[in-house]
């Protein structure tokens, strides 16, 4: 092997090694940080069991928001047409969070309730996040979502 | 009547753009000077008509012409005049119009300041820009007409999205678009160079100031957007790895790679094909950014409209522009290859390494941003990629860049000796370690903060060492040519930025608390006293305004007034109160009333002490300034005089920066 070819060989190997490391790290980071979105009925059906953290999407059940008397702890129920799930959150809720509005909460299950670390509300009165709409349609086969009619 | 005039103006502009896009290219191909000469007047005419349409839309907003759908949707009688002007680009249709108008500004500037360019080359450049303009104007005319009528005319309009009612928002989109669209110039130069083959070697020299300026604008736009997110979205973050932020960040990353690759190509002739490829990528990512933000494909604050027809159009447009230019690249790039070889230890090598890091970073951000779309298409379920993905990979990719940054200027083109680098290495290491040790006493052993100080000193001292070297070695007047001054400013900005990011990330104190009037909370060295909430009102909102008094060592520093605003249609918007400072920001946001009956008057509040957070934007502004200063280099203008004397091909650069 002459010196030029040897040098090229080394460069190619270095680039390959760098690429392998980059791909490995990317796959690792993606796996760690992929969050799936589920609705309460999907969670009830056990679809979320495989995931430690996931995102819960649905409507805030009317009249379900309960504040603690002395801290920022708040509890509310997220519903879709076929299921409901109590959620617990400590912190400041977004501006658009209120009864019968769609929300997406990131967090994990603790026993039979969901502990949220982040709560996002939809951005305006007419707009529902597309992914949430899709997920809710999928969860109940296109049935219209009406939060106040949802079962307990 | 005027809205129809606006629509007519848009159609005329589209036809002129068509003429500008097609005729000069045919002329350059056939060597027909008459056809090539069409480019300039067509570009000017198009600019006039687009400006007319834009002016008419502004007029419609100022005169409350609610018979225009777009005006009725985005403004109302109570909206102050300055936000009615900002509302022009507050939603989809108007921002597309702004895009085209800015494209025209760049095109006309290029036509005016590029008389030294060979006739054929300029015809091709303007032709390519014309084709881009056709794409956008057709998009506006056929799918997103801002002048569409709404009959019967409503008595009052809707509202501009309240988050957009902020001074930062009047400013952010136009500047950002200046950057996005500015990359179209570099793109057009590259395509023209590919079309012309090896003839126009000098194209990089002509493209550089435009790219530098565009990158400066993009930096400014991103800084403004980040500032706006900090002050207006209410919760004190400055970067969220939100799809829309990523959309502007990807062209920026590729832009950084591009301006460095252009320097290599201009000075040494090497990396030509790579430079062309980066120009194509930078502009493609700008287009993709527009697509991501405006199509509503990705859920985000910015995606106001969700119209699949528009998405389809932009997708087809993207496919044609990106696919076409890459095809052209594949066919013609081998013809433009060439240049001088370089040793492993040379300025070219470090630039290549940095280039790789920046492009890989852009690819990483692209993957993370589009992954939910890919997952959706492959039926993997509804996936989102969390910010930690970016937060983990990005610093990792940027680490080598930061480490190499001080050495770049000290290295020579082609081949460099190791000896001078050793002394630089020794000095920056001593400086960084010394400052890190001093800093360790002030930051309670926070590793991230210490690393931040060390990294910032590493970059800052490295840059200053080079400033000193030039000062000592070069005669007065030749020490800092604009191009170099720009480079040094931007590199220094990296250091300032690192201080801001790492210190504010590690030392910030956040408290979400419930406070009744009279309650106090201690955040760091500061005591916040909540003095209750009272009602107030503005031109088109009413608000509950809190009063928070900040004390330090028993002395009042500031009285802050965070607000919770309610706009006419019931939208609620948090207005934070910020007490700015060089070494720290104090930040208060009102959450929500804690007792519905308001007997006690308790509220949820978010209190922040953010050390050095302002340095983030200061660093960004240094980088912006670097881009502008480098773009204004005399060298690029001096060529014009020289070119007039002798129409010879461009000389290889005689001066070397080292």
Keywords:
heterodimer; A: 152 residues; alpha+beta; OB fold (Dihydrolipoamide Acetyltransferase, E2P); 2 domains; five-stranded mixed β-barrel; 3 helices; 7 strands; 30% helix; B: 658 residues; six-stranded antiparallel β-sheet; four-stranded antiparallel β-sheet; 62% helix; 11% strand; flat
Describe it.
The complex is a heterodimer of chains A (152) and B (658). With 152 residues, chain A is of the alpha+beta class. Chain A contains three helices and seven strands. Chain A has a five-stranded mixed beta barrel. In chain A, a hairpin with a 5-residue loop joins strand 3 and strand 4 (73-80). The longest helix of chain A is centred in the N-terminal third of the chain and has 31 residues, at 3-33. The model of chain A is unreliable at 141-152 (pLDDT under 50). Chain B is α+β, with helices and mostly antiparallel strands. Among the domains of chain B are: 1-161, no CATH class; 405-507 and 615-619, no CATH class; 509-612. Helix content of chain B is 62%, strand content 11%. Chain B is built from 19 helices and eleven strands. In chain B, strands 3, 4, 5, 6, 7 and 8 form a six-stranded antiparallel beta sheet that branches. In chain B, strand 3 (520-523) and strand 4 form a beta hairpin. Chain B is flat. The termini of chain B are far apart.
The CATH homologous superfamily of the largest domain in chain A is named Nucleic acid-binding proteins
Strand content of chain B: 5-15%
Proportion of residues in helical segments of chain A: 25-40%
- What summary fits the major beta sheet of chain B? 6 strands, antiparallel
Low-confidence stretches of chain A: 141-152
CATH hierarchy, class of the largest domain in chain A = Mainly Beta
CATH architecture name of the largest domain in chain A: Beta Barrel
**Terminal Cα separation of chain A, in Å?**
76 Å
What's the overall average pLDDT of chain A, rounded? 77
Low-confidence stretches of chain B: 300-305, 640-658
Distance between the termini of chain B: 62 Å
Number of domains of chain A: 2
Number of DSSP strand runs of chain B = 11
Largest sheet of chain A: 5 strands, mixed, barrel
Radius of gyration of chain B: 27 Å
Number of strands of chain A: 7
Secondary structure class of chain A reads alpha+beta
Give helix % range of chain B.
55-70%
Strand content of chain A: 25-35%
